[in-house]
Amino acid sequence: MALLEVSRLEAFYGQTQVLRGLSFKLEEGSVTTILGANGAGKTTTLRAICGMVRTHGELTFDGRAIGGKATETIVRHGIAHVPEGRGTFMRLSAEQNLRLGAYARRDKAAVEEDLERVYGYFPRLKERSGQQAGTLSGGEQQMLAVGRALMMRPRLMLLDEPSFGLAPLLTEELFRILGAISRERQVSMLVVEQNASLALSIADHAYLLETGRIVMSGSAEEIGKDESVRKAYLGY
Amino acid sequence: MDLFLQQTFSGLAFGGIYACVALAVVMIYQATDHLNFAQGEMAMFSTYIAFTLLHHGVPYWWAFLLAMAISFVGGVLIERIVVRPVEGTGVLNEVIVFIGLLVIFNSMAGWIWDYTIKPFPSPFPKHVPFGITFISPHDFGVIGVTLVVLLAVFLFFRFTPVGLAMRAAAQDPASARLVGIRVGWMLALGWGLAAAIGAVAGMMIAPIVFLEPNMMGGILLYAFAGALLGGIGNPVGAVVGSLIVGVLENLVGTYVPFVGSQLKLSVALVLIVTVLVFRPNGLFGQVVVKRV
What we know:
The structure holds two protein chains of two kinds.
Chain A lengths: L3 E10 L2 E11 L4 E6 L5 H8 L4 E8 L2 E2 L5 H6 L2 E4 L11 H8 L6 H14 L1 H5 L10 H13 L5 E5 L7 H18 L2 E5 L3 H7 L2 E6 L2 E7 H6 L1 H8 L2
Parallel strand pairs in A: 3-8, 3-9, 6-7, 7-8
Antiparallel strand pairs in A: 1-2, 1-4, 4-5, 9-10
Helix pairs in contact in A: 3-6
Chain B lengths: L1 H31 L6 H17 L4 H24 L7 H23 L23 H23 L1 H11 L1 H6 L4 H27 L7 H14 L4 H21 L8 H15 L14
């Protein structure tokens, strides 16, 4: 059974319809990327899955219907969203930001373990743990957002532009870490990323979105080889 | 010198009471960006509840705690039932609801307990320990109680997961939801806490100003002045600002001949206007800088 099943998903901002009937599945432990131009509905797809926009259609996570539920209820089932713009709690310390990721968890000992693990992935955050998060650089805040999502010990991570604001070397490092997390801990990921070649490099599957519809889908390898995709999104 | 010490400490006692009200106001302000104009009347109503409990023979400190607990539940219910429906529908709607609450509590208190001025007991011993003479026993007790309350609130927000979640929910509701925080309940909890802290202020001030439906009007104004002086977005600043206001108001009333006790309240208004004109973020308020 698929971990996440999306069928005929429509999403609206006020009167404006942004998603026009998406259907796709995510397998447990797999990485999927959504490609598409600006305004195609990539971010909205992620937001729709965790109940941040008004939707129609069916969303099933781990056998549970989550469509129309409140965001805080959906994420408690094990979905972590690294939002566009990072969503840092600016006036709290970096460590408090991370600990808030574990807010809904009751397994205290494991939370401490995970905190150390996150610091292991991002040693920079450990150096800055007591610092007010709003004063961290853009890249550090991005690590913080990913770290906070990991603190939820999610089964599915929704990553919206994880490379945003990161230097190229850090971006590669981040994707290496994400790939490792997905393999070692069987965390599924749905990634929206400007850097399409990087996203395809860790993805198993890819979808191409155009004006709220899926126009192409397949394994990351196939999609990466497709000539039109290459021209439009990979730039060669 | 004795007069100066006396007025300073009495000012600190008042300041502590203003600080409680200011803290209640700031808590709700941080979560909603609005000043709860009804905070004072809610505190007054809580004090009447304590009054009724005392009247029925409940021992003072039990009545004190019970009044706080009832106020907490009342605050939560007000948020859930009255405030929530207008949440996010615009400044005007929310402010009108706050003013409506103010009028409702004021009239309800008058209707239930009538408008006559009632004495309210002070729970503190008749003598200040260590033979100190420059502070009245009630002022001494008030400073102690308000310090305990302020410290408890500080520890709660600093060191408990729920306190942290409440701060997170106030700062960034969308992100808070993404980590599973039930933001709506955090707001209600904030209202409950604010009401309970306000209740303490009411019960501490009532022995001095006497219990009547309008007793908190001036107090709320001083609390606003204190909160603004310290920085309305900064709880610690609001507390310090309130203490300054309490002392300042008392000293000005004593030493500036034409002010006296009649014009004391204007000191608060002058302070509010001055702060807003020259330092809108208050003494300790940070100008929030955002990365773009």
